Amino acid sequence: MKSLRTRLLVVASSVLAVFLLLSGEALEQAFRAAAEQGEQDRLEGMVLALLGAAESGPNGTLTIPDNALPDPRLGHVLSGLDALIFNERGKVVWRSASFSGAVPQVPSPDVGVSLFKEVGDRFMLCYGVRWVGDTSGPHLFGGPPKPKRYTVALFHDQDTYRAQLYTFRRILWFGLGGSAVALIAVQFFVLLWGLSPLRRLARELRQVETGEKSRIESDYATELKPLADGLNAMILAERTQQTRYRNALDDLAHSMKTPLAVLRGIIDDSEADPATRDKLRDPLGRIQDITDHQLRKAAAAGRRTLSEPVQLRPIVEKLAGALGKVYAQKQPQFDIRVAYALRARADQGDLYELLGNLMDNAGKWCKQQIAVKIEFADRRLRILVEDDGPGFPDNAAELLARGVRADTHVPGQGIGLGAIAEMVRIYDGSIELGRSELGGALIDVRLSV
């Protein structure tokens, strides 16, 4: 996930999902506990109602008349509510009409103590009581009857409880799910709003790159203002750096012009000593060549990321027009395959020098046909220059060395291809020499711009 917005949205959504799951589970457990407590309270109330309707049966045992049942369900089979009364020996002394089947084993809690638990798919409540029989008639041994120990057991199906739990779960999770979707949507829009300054900054930076703006102009938040100010400072520094370099080089060239002119005058002075003139001619030529080469090399701007892109078609057309006049005797025909919309982020002077050397080399060696093609390939600027001349010799790679020429009979200093190779290295590019479909030389240059 390289997107900052995606990262934040995934992390926030994950935290939200975990929070809602834990909250839902906690709410469900709380509702379950409350529902079970309500069931226990209802059964305890039913026990007290049964005891309120209880009477002494034969032999003073505890019994409940059918017409005094506190809940009609106790009088109907399979109603889901059953009641049993056990004596202290665990024998059933009364059962409701709703009870059927085998008598279960139940615990015997202390008197006044209730025991609530789940037994299979039913709730069970056991309540310990001590019952004193009828004291209104005569009694043996001249005293009242002794109290007897009983356990009242109620059994209630969980159908109602489960229906309530299911309804609550459905409402809870539908509600939490809807809330999660709504909150994620809100988070998405909040992230869109919160990250909008970054998108605006990126958009302004692209406008600076394309030349639509000269600097980042918007007023950004406190956190982004140092970044915007730093980018503006970098843009300004990059755009002024080349100007300072070239001004310094112009000053250097101007300073060297006078002493070189003096030396050149001595060489051209017919009255000067011929031996001295011969000794100075070759070193002075080498000094002039080295000076020109180093000035051109230092003046090369190289790739400029935040510079305004340069349109390439007008440069090629202007150079073609100039070379057509230089090599007018050949009447060179230029096939220019460069889109009008094609632009490159490079120094215009560098492009003039590079394309000028490439096209001049083709004009020098061609018979008549010259083809120039420029395009972007694999995110690099590709320049193809072809001609219909004799082409490169077998040792074509050596021509990229400065001062090596293919034919010493053709005027020139042999620095054209060497200068091209140096310019290509400045732009982290590559150059290949080959055979053209026109029959002559092919120069394939690729630049990182």
General description of the model:
This protein has helices at residues 4-52, 159-209, 225-268, 274-299, 313-326, 348-365, 416-426; strands spanning 55-56, 62-63, 81-87, 92-95, 114-119, 122-131, 148-157, 310-311, 333-338, 343-344, 369-377, 380-387, 430-435, 441-447. The protein is of the alpha+beta class. It has 3 domains: 4-134 and 143-164, Beta-Lactamase (2-Layer Sandwich), CATH 3.30.450; 225-299; 310-447, 2-Layer Sandwich (Heat Shock Protein 90). The chain has a 5-stranded antiparallel β-sheet with strand order 4-3-7-6-5. A 5-stranded mixed β-sheet has the order 9-11-12-14-13, covered by helices on one side. The chain has a two-stranded antiparallel sheet with strand order 1-2. Helix 6 (348-365) packs antiparallel against helix 7 (416-426). Residues 402-415 have low confidence and may be disordered.
Beta-strand proportion: 15-25%
Along the chain, the helix and strand elements come as: HEEEEEEEHHHEHEEHEEHEE
- Would you state the CATH class of the largest domain? Alpha Beta
Poorly predicted runs are 402-415
- Measure the end-to-end span: 28 Å
Name the CATH architecture of the largest domain: 2-Layer Sandwich
What is the CATH T-level topology of the largest domain?
Beta-Lactamase
Strand segment count: 14
What strand line-up does the widest sheet have?
4-3-7-6-5
Query: Which geometry do the CA atoms define?
Result: rod-shaped
